[in-house]
TrEMBL record:
Pathway: Glycan metabolism; osmoregulated periplasmic glucan (OPG) biosynthesis
The protein, known as: Glucans biosynthesis glucosyltransferase H
GO cellular component: a single term: plasma membrane
Pfam families named among the record's database cross-references: Glyco_trans_2_3 (PF13632)
GO MF: hexosyltransferase activity
Family: Belongs to the glycosyltransferase 2 family. OpgH subfamily.
Length: 655
């Protein structure tokens, strides 16, 4: 029996009724062509202007290197710019990016769900109280709905520290006692060995219990989702039998330090617009971000068993950023993957300071660069390959930018320290004057600035038009937007330095441990701030001194970069302040809707964190529900050299 036959039923079986709205997107190839038509000429124009600046004088090797690296950067910036512009236009006129109509049809909810679904939360050495409070909030959100009986809930622990494992079990017993009769639907499983990291954790769940469920909603350790959003995902997956993945936009919440509130505000301000632009050209080939998404279990087991790659890291070994690859494999097998662009009811948390933020990025750098080694996998869709390229380039671009600045500085210093030769031939009537095309230089600078910052301006304008009340009104929104822009400019040089170091270390074969992320805010000590920024600061001081002495004009141009690097330690320290974060909130800076109008799921977490002490977890003893009988249905490990046959198309009556 084919996969489609397993997932598609007739009306007489009480499944998806005829006429049910389905997720549909037209013209994926056309939309990628539109993006190419917009992005490539934009990048070419920027590259041409830079070439025209260099051309009047003899092109040096360093200028040629700058041109080559800049063209890659311009193409990346142009793609991001046009994604934002398209998202702005579609949001402004309330056009759905998939159907290109006024609204994407909502799933029918006038009948209960017909299939069973699992809600799974993989955890690894996490703060016990936080994961239990968040998990319980999601459990209660769904159990309080009419479809509560259609769900089972699994906490899948890979915790390796004995004291944390004991705390988890004690907290679980307390949770089941609080749930009472409803605890029969919640289960806890801990693996003694976390083979395969998160990939192995989810694979173990699917192999043991996957055949009991139509789909699984995957949560991260810091995920919070409303009952309405999770039910919406379940309805959509049931009513779209050709779809294997639906990804939501997890919005940061519960942030208190100044840095984390800045990141949280930026996500709430720009994500709806940017996600709409992404959805426009991704269409039915959306990416998977690893959590806050629903996945159809059967195709996941058939097509997402990941092999261990041959060779050494970064391109060999276990696949680290597995989520991108899983989405690509689902598309390769013919299943649709969609991104929902409304941001309600799906939440996560972010690192509380710049050091933790960079540490998280270090893990992602290695995983995303590994994807470059998978570009040659047979049968992948063009959009999936773009996901791999853009995911890696999000970090490699920092190194390219740093190299452009370094080559530019070296070229300027060379010219400043080398006597100018006006007569380069033995018989020459007129001198070779050095030509500086000031007008074109200024135009290129402003054009590059537009590519960089216009998406932020568009996001702010869109919010002022449509969502100002979500940010506390016009004045608070403007204050937050201006402060966010200033902060982004200030911390960008340090993040560029970090990402450049991370990329170099990955290609040098320096591996990284994937540890649990510190999520609660605390002030970074001065010693840690200095330790994590001293190299960047020393480089910036030497860089600034040399350019100030020999090329003062270049020094002025480099000031925005130099200031951020020289002030790195104070920036890390001050922005990690809880007091400054609270002061900003009182002053109406970085206010978000979920602080003005808190949803029930977030309220559950806030109350739970305030009232459940870690010491209380072991005071109540309750029986842990027995796990369901396991099936051990193996996942199919993919052979990346093989090209799988596409699955059976949807029958007309099923559509």
């Amino acid at each position: 029996m084919s996969i489609m036959q397993n997932n598609t039923h007739s009306d007489s079986e009480g499944s998806t009724p005829k006429g049910t709205p389905v997720l549909r997107a037209w013209g994926s190839g056309v939309r990628l062509s539109i993006m190419a038509i917009l992005a490539i000429p934009t990048a070419a124009l920027a590259g041409w202007s830079l070439y025209e600046i260099f051309k009047p004088n003899v092109l040096t090797e360093m200028e040629i290197a700058q041109l080559a690296l800049s063209m890659m950067l311009f193409l990346w910036l142009a793609m991001s710019f046009w994604t934002a512009v398209i998202g702005f236009v579609l949001k402004l006129f309330n056009i759905d990016p998939l159907s290109m109509r006024k609204a994407q049809p909502a799933p029918r909810t006038d009948a209960p769900l017909t299939k069973r679904h699992a809600v799974v939360m993989p955890v690894y050495n996490e703060d016990t109280r936080r994961i239990m409070v968040g998990f319980e909030a999601c459990v209660r959100e769904l159990l309080d709905t009419d479809n509560g009986k259609q769900y089972d809930f699994y906490m899948l622990s890979d915790t390796t520290k004995p004291e944390m494992a004991e705390a988890e079990l004690a907290a679980w017993e307390a949770l089941t006692a609080r749930l009472g009769d409803k605890s029969s639907q919640v289960f806890y499983r801990r693996r003694e060995k976390n083979t395969g990291r998160k990939v192995g954790n989810l694979a173990d769940f699917c192999q043991r219990w996957g055949n009991r469920y139509e789909a699984m909603i995957v949560l991260d350790a810091d995920s919070i989702m409303s009952g309405e959003r999770m039910n919406d995902l379940a309805y959509r997956i049931e009513q779209n039998p050709d779809t294997a993945l639906i990804q939501t936009i997890p919005m940061p919440v519960r942030q208190h330090t100044f840095f984390a509130r800045f990141v949280q505000f930026a996500a709430h301000l720009y994500s709806p617009m940017l996600a709409t632009g992404l959805s426009f050209w991704q269409t039915d080939s959306a990416n998977y971000w690893g959590h806050n998404a629903i996945i159809r279990v059967e195709p996941f087991m058939q097509h997402c068993g990941l092999p261990t790659l041959e060779g050494k890291e970064p391109f060999g070994g276990d696949i680290l950023s597995h989520d991108f690859v899983e989405a690509a494999l689902l598309r390769r097998a013919g299943w649709n993957c969609f991104l929902l662009t409304d941001t309600t009811g799906s939440y996560e948390e972010v690192p509380s300071n710049m050091i933790e933020y960079a540490t998280r990025d270090r893990r992602w750098v290695q995983g995303n660069i590994q994807h470059l080694g998978l570009l040659g996998v047979k049968g992948l869709k063009a959009t999936s390959r773009l996901h791999f390229v853009f995911g890696a380039f999000a970090y490699i671009s920092s190194l390219l930018l740093l190299l452009v600045l370094a080559f530019g500085t070296a070229d300027a210093l060379y010219r400043a320290l080398t006597p100018v030769e006006f007569f380069t031939a033995e018989y020459q009537l007129f001198p070779d004057w050095q030509i500086a095309r000031q007008g074109l230089m200024v135009a290129t600078m402003w054009g590059t600035a537009a590519l960089l910052f216009m998406p932020k301006v568009l996001g702010l304008i869109l919010a002022l038009i449509q969502r100002r009340d979500e940010f506390g009104g016009v004045w608070r929104l403007i204050k937050g937007g201006v402060m966010e822009l200033a902060m982004a400019i200030l911390i960008a040089p340090l993040m560029m330095f970090y990402h450049s170091y991370f990329v170099i270390s990955v290609f040098a074969g320096i591996s990284v441990k994937w540890e649990a992320q510190a999520r609660e805010g605390s002030m970074v000590p001065w010693m840690d701030s200095l330790k994590r920024s001293k190299v960047a600061t020393i480089v910036a001081l030497a860089w600034g001194t040399a350019t100030f002495i020999y090329t003062p004009a270049l020094f002025i141009w480099l000031l925005p970069v130099l200031i951020g690097l020289i002030l790195a330690a104070p920036l890390i320290r001050i922005t990690s302040s809880l007091g400054l974060g609270r002061a900003a909130m009182r002053g109406g800076i970085f206010v978000i809707q979920d602080e003005i109008n808190e949803c029930r799921a977030l309220k559950r977490v806030r109350i739970g964190m305030a009232n459940i002490e870690p010491s209380e977890a072991g005071n109540v003893k309750a029986p842990v529900p027995a796990l369901p009988e396991s099936s051990w249905q193996p996942m199919v490990i993919q052979d990346f050299s093989a090209y799988p046959e596409p699955r059976t198309p949807l029958a007309p009556e099923a559509a």
